[in-house]
Write a sequence for this structure.
């Protein structure tokens, strides 16, 4: 399942800081951060639940807010 989060992982230094924690839980091809996007979108492909992924990012010292999807997300996101 693909999960996406708005984060404060906004530069190469931040990616360097979060990488060890992410590598404990995911392979390199399972996650990426788009630091060019205004919301610094973290995308993770995993069988873990969204709240589990969110907690992993928080434990690494960063914010992670699930991206709202669909019409509801467009109206209230």
């Amino acid at each position: 399942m693909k999960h996406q989060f708005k984060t404060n992982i906004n530069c190469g230094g931040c990616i360097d800081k979060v990488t060890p924690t992410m590598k404990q839980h995911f392979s390199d091809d399972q996650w990426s951060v788009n630091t060019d996007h205004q919301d610094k979108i973290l995308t993770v492909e995993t069988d873990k639940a969204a709240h589990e992924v969110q907690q992993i990012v928080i434990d690494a010292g960063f914010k992670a807010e699930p991206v709202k999807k669909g019409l509801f997300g467009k109206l209230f996101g």
Remarks:
- The beta strands are 2-7, 31-34, 41-45, 64-66.
- The domain at 2-76 is CATH 3.30.70.100 (Alpha-Beta Plaits).
- Residues 1 and 48 are 8 Å apart (CA to CA).
